[in-house]
Amino acid sequence: MLVVMNKDATAAEIRRVVKKIESLGLRAVPMPGAQRTAVCVLGNKGPLDPSFFNQMRGVKEAIPVSRPYKMVSRETRPEPTVVRFGKEAIGGGGVALIAGPCAVESEDQCMRIAAAVRKAGAKFFRGGAYKPRTSPYAFQGLGEAGLKILGRVRDRLGLYIVTEAIDHEILFRVADYADIVQVGARNMQNYSLLKAAGRCGKPVLLKRGMSATIEEWLMAAEYIMSEGNPQVILCERGVRTFADHSRNTLDLSAVLVVRQLSHLPVIVDPSHAAGRRDLVIPLARAAVAVNADGLMVEVHHQP
Amino acid sequence: MLVVMNKDATAAEIRRVVKKIESLGLRAVPMPGAQRTAVCVLGNKGPLDPSFFNQMRGVKEAIPVSRPYKMVSRETRPEPTVVRFGKEAIGGGGVALIAGPCAVESEDQCMRIAAAVRKAGAKFFRGGAYKPRTSPYAFQGLGEAGLKILGRVRDRLGLYIVTEAIDHEILFRVADYADIVQVGARNMQNYSLLKAAGRCGKPVLLKRGMSATIEEWLMAAEYIMSEGNPQVILCERGVRTFADHSRNTLDLSAVLVVRQLSHLPVIVDPSHAAGRRDLVIPLARAAVAVNADGLMVEVHHQP
Amino acid sequence: MLVVMNKDATAAEIRRVVKKIESLGLRAVPMPGAQRTAVCVLGNKGPLDPSFFNQMRGVKEAIPVSRPYKMVSRETRPEPTVVRFGKEAIGGGGVALIAGPCAVESEDQCMRIAAAVRKAGAKFFRGGAYKPRTSPYAFQGLGEAGLKILGRVRDRLGLYIVTEAIDHEILFRVADYADIVQVGARNMQNYSLLKAAGRCGKPVLLKRGMSATIEEWLMAAEYIMSEGNPQVILCERGVRTFADHSRNTLDLSAVLVVRQLSHLPVIVDPSHAAGRRDLVIPLARAAVAVNADGLMVEVHHQP
Amino acid sequence: MLVVMNKDATAAEIRRVVKKIESLGLRAVPMPGAQRTAVCVLGNKGPLDPSFFNQMRGVKEAIPVSRPYKMVSRETRPEPTVVRFGKEAIGGGGVALIAGPCAVESEDQCMRIAAAVRKAGAKFFRGGAYKPRTSPYAFQGLGEAGLKILGRVRDRLGLYIVTEAIDHEILFRVADYADIVQVGARNMQNYSLLKAAGRCGKPVLLKRGMSATIEEWLMAAEYIMSEGNPQVILCERGVRTFADHSRNTLDLSAVLVVRQLSHLPVIVDPSHAAGRRDLVIPLARAAVAVNADGLMVEVHHQP
What we know:
4 copies of one chain form a homotetramer. Chain A has 2 domains: 2-63, Alpha-Beta Plaits (2-Layer Sandwich), CATH 3.30.70; 83-298, Aldolase class I (TIM Barrel, Alpha-Beta Barrel), CATH 3.20.20.70. In chain A, 34% of the residues lie in helices and 20% in strands. The first copy, chain A, has helices at 11-23, 51-54, 107-119, 144-157, 168-177, 191-198, 214-226, 252-261, 270-274, 277-289, and strands at 2-5, 27-32, 37-42, 59-63, 83-85, 88-90, 96-100, 124-126, 160-164, 180-183, 204-207, 232-236, 266-268, 294-298. In chain A, helix 3 packs parallel to helix 4 (144-157), helix 5 packs parallel to helix 6 and helix 6 (191-198) packs across helix 7 (214-226). At the A-D interface, helix 5, helix 6 and helix 7 of A face helix 5, helix 6 and helix 7 of D.
């Protein structure tokens, strides 16, 4: 259920709606929009009766929400979410460029790559300090030392930092250094991590799981939003199929469908989808062609 | 094995290479290129000794072919194949537009749609006279009456006709009317059909099978080429995956990988991939962004 | 629509129902069952009014059929179809064993393998005279000479012959020699082949396509049955997935679901699913555990 | 690298091998087997020279390990791992039965179901106290209160308890109550959770991820073993494919392939694979037919 307020509804009227919802044993989350505020009702098992709210002062209408996700839905918020970073933004029209190495290896490596990607127009720098690795014997990242290097990249070059958190404890440490906290594909349904991401106070980049449906992906975003964090950026990175000519099959229709269903920005990571250097640039162009809000690409200084 | 001739090799020198190959119990197919002719050796079970050919007059070099397909391979022919239709072409740079209804229903329907798509810039008209249907109880197409309608569309509007053949007998009838004979996704490994397509004297549009690998798709094209028809156009139309938000998952990386492996032109059918009208135009833009040689789209006059 | 007749309905009463159906411009196919006859109505676009038939003499009831397939459906025929071969049968309880080489290579090879599989309890001999091959340069089978060898295997050893037809012309030649005509996975939606199979007068073994849904598979069987051939045997042989440890992923739940939806017998081919010799026997045991009506296995005399 | 000791190697000889390995800056994990001890070398980037160890006293041979996983590999330990619980065991021949409800709802519910499954022969009781849910608004489990109920089931009925941990903090709390700690499919690549599972001192049931390859699954088990926990039980529960007639496609060939590659026991969960009650029993029979070491089934008292 979504209680849509009049354009000129007062703060007191909104408060009364919130109290009414809470008096029913449910949760109320006011979501201010460009035109009006809507109050999202969470926690109801079955459908609610709109007449509970339709007569209240300041209420335009109470509308049932038909999707299993609520806060991420376009039904709840018709205008697109724009996540702002100083003068930069993800969502709302432009194509944000996030670039950098797979893993943070050294300060020298990061500074060289960061200088290059800034020159190429990127405003966001990516690099992993904590790396989720298939093998326990592979390099697992520099950890906090890596985060400190990323912090110095931001200070020196003015780039916004995107870096991954791999569990809910590490997430809060990551959030101290990052401008955007990344939740990786393997953790898309790690709900403890998603809940922490919802309470970390930083924008979250949520990658699509390797074989996640659109609904599962949006439900993962709902976990983050339902903990109070409205700043979620979705990232398509290819899905696992029978096809063996690229690492994953980039699913650009997902960008289009997500945009219809949700107000959240969607970016595309062609590097992980392709797993082959020669495919990255044309797939990035294709992502722009479907109006992705940004690109996330891997850059090596000694590829 | 590919026997590459010198630029100035004479017809007699080429003939001698062909005879030499045939004397080994193998098949020889000369493939004239922009710069030089190469003679493709078919039918050998294991690797051949290049010294059989390297000493012959007019031979530049004999090179082993490492892929299971030969005639479709870029190793055999580095320059792109361009299929020409009067002043129009598929391959070699532009974006050919093929548009029309799913099925030919009546002359009136076809003429209306054909006039509209011609106005929109299409030079090719598609429409099914023989329809492969999941259900035996569904409309199976107008058959030869449909082919005749398509012939009148060509005569009256000057559009080139693309239409599907669903078995090897029907294929020769279709080739009498069509400018391009289509082999559909369900028939991509119908080898009797592919062999007939190789002997029909018309360019062939070969759709990728629903779960075909790139190699299987190129091998299907090899069937057509090995019967003597060099004019094959490949068409990516989405593959079957777990994803349920679109009918198929459009695999644009396939366009890129095919172009590296083969000299054949590749077009994209976003309508069948999406199965939803709202996704067709952005996916078509994405196809152009990966340098597809053309687009094939379904158009209804009363959608 | 299915018009179910009374147990004691007369032939004249059935004929009148058929005529009534035909007078509506539709097709009628009487399907005699163990208890009673049902008349299947084909060709209607929308739902029919049961009252057309409910008042007719000999009619028990007219029931709408909710599935897109009709003749293959358990709604149409509750008792299982049993396909009989002399004293042998496929369906109805036992586990039929079909064994033999991938391709017919020589009479000597076939006789040796046939003798061995007969000793091991097989009553059915398989072997390909026409082979659908990914590569045009691979051995395509002995053709009619292979069929003749198979005929001699039957004559000498008393095994029933299962062999594949790869197009609708070849199918009638195959039907002259085979006891069961096989339609392979790549041809599951080759509708010209399916229609020919429906008119060939021999039982048909229909393999599931590489990425066919249950509904598509049953619709392919419906094509065969709707041409007048009630003797269809379904064969699960694994589907294409991301998994790379076996050639295909054997889908045993398909056997169970098909048995619920259809009266047709279902067998399992573990050899093609696994693509690895060591998996064949345990997967065959698993197929028996889900009550498959038979097994189809590849046997080499010099593996 | 695996340093295999002689049958009669002394503890001192083993210690010297461990020290030698550590002196190279690598990790050594002695793995006692039925016949002999092998010392697993972890942490080397490239291949090691066997001559480092071949001359040492008590060493039979030093053999390179060819797979990316080491401790889970049959190369490292040819005999099967048997996980023992009093007189019960998982692995080594029998079919262990793990049964119980999806979620712990109340003590009454658990006691009723537990009594029933014990009567049916189960020695292990499953039930979720922490539930990973697609929706943040769904019941997330009773948490620690649920664990206490499970503890009382064990005390009163003598069943061993299997229950899931959903993050690395909760895991240690779960391990206080559980006899087997479950890591669910969505968390198969949650490496913080896997590492905690490796240090929890209880056997771990590791479900296969929804689209995990065999190698990724075994690498996840390697994470647990490399932290010092040799008691890992693998659980196949179906993979995500295009097929829509069952929730997941049960991949029984995975049981067979895992058994070849690894010494760890493998069980099967037909309930989650099928997602339909009517398929569970036949799929369980099929799992036994491929020699699964156990079954895990969902049981409702009011289904």
